Amino acid sequence: MSNKIISLEERMLKNLIDKGNNLIFEGDFTEATKIFKEAYKKDPNNVSVIYNLAALSIEEGFTEESEKLLLEAFEKDSNHVYTLIGLANIIYYKTENFNMASCYIEPALKHNPESIELLTAYANLCMLEGKLKEAIEYFQKAILLDREYTPALTGISTVYNFAGLHHLSKHRFEQAIFSFKQSIDFNPDWIAPRLNLVRAFGFLKKFKTAMDMLDEIIDIFGSDVDLDYLIKINETIDNKQILLVPLMLKMTEAKLLQQMGETEKSKEIFLKIYKLNQEFPTLNFSLALIEVNEKNYIKAEEYIKNELIVSPNSIKVKALRYVIYKKMNKSSSWDIHFNILKKTTDDVYKLFAVGVLLCKYDLNAEGKDILDYTKRLNNSIYEELTKHDFESTLNAIYSNYSDLSLV
């Protein structure tokens, strides 16, 4: 039996590709790009080399150059799995057209239905499109083929977390709890669904369960949540990202205390977080709420203006700003605010909660406008929401359900 003789050129090309791949693994994308460009000069028809150049280009964002390279790779090998996935992703990024993007993956899946890479890529597209059931189905197919395939495990965990947040915003607390638990099962190292699970029990007013879970999370992640200590050393911390987890934990605790009526304790925590990060999601909104309840409207206005910088399109923030302006007897036209709210969203749940928010602060005419509008939009949802007490409805809008989804 004769062995194939590898030429010097082939050996040099292989060495370059190996070196480039090692540099990618080490995170040195600049040097890796130089190496793969050198490899491209030696073999401009090598699909693996072209794809790697495209992937390195995508590290800086989807560009015309990355799309051009992917199309070049596709022309040379229309069955190259990673090229197909790359093209699907870049097309969806540019157009948000699911059908256009999926046409690169669906035919390949028919020929290779057990490709965990293709199954996962298709599931990711479904997730981006909001097709959560389909996303779960295809992630599960990939996991059945390889129960340790990290991209599929993290993907399905993300889908269940999103599903839980969706249920949470619709007052479907039991479904939310199930979804968050599923998310944790698939990715136990991810803190977001654990914190969301705490919030779900808080909404159900099972505060002891929620607090016990929060203590468990602190034990699992070993995070230093001593805010006084963090404030003391804050100026010496170069990488502020390390504050993210402890601040998330303390925000969750403060919001639970707020729901429990422990206003002074929650405010104390919020103010400490404010010293560490004045732009932390929903922090200024939470402080503005406390100040409104205490009739400190000047301070409330300061906080709500800060929150508008962080969340300029949030209807809950705009609604509370309107409340503050009315309480301060500032000129503010309801017609303008009403039209802005209607243009901002047609989400009946969010609009209903805005109506409740306005009524809570004695702006009954304006609140009734919003509630009547939600009834016209969808009477069945309106009837369902009127079965809940006002406080649980307000919790739905106080919960900015994007702030914990991707932590």
> What integer value in Å does the Rg equal?
26 Å
Give the H and E element order. HHHHHHHHHHHHHHHHHHHHHHHH
Mean pLDDT: 87
* Helix residue percentage: over 70%
**How many DSSP E strands?**
0
Query: How far from one another are the termini?
Result: 56 Å
Structural class computed from helices and strand pairing: mainly alpha
Described by strand count, sense and barrel closure, the largest sheet is: none
The backbone outline, from C-alpha atoms, is elongated
Q: Work out the strand percent.
A: under 5%
Extract low-pLDDT stretches.
400-407
How would you describe this structure to a colleague?
- This protein is mainly alpha-helical and 407 residues long.
- Helices cover 74% and strands 0% of the residues.
- The chain is built from 24 helices and no strands.
- Helix 14 (227-233) runs parallel beside helix 16 (263-276).
- The longest helix is centred in the middle third of the chain and has 20 residues, at 150-169.
- The model is unreliable at 400-407 (pLDDT under 50).
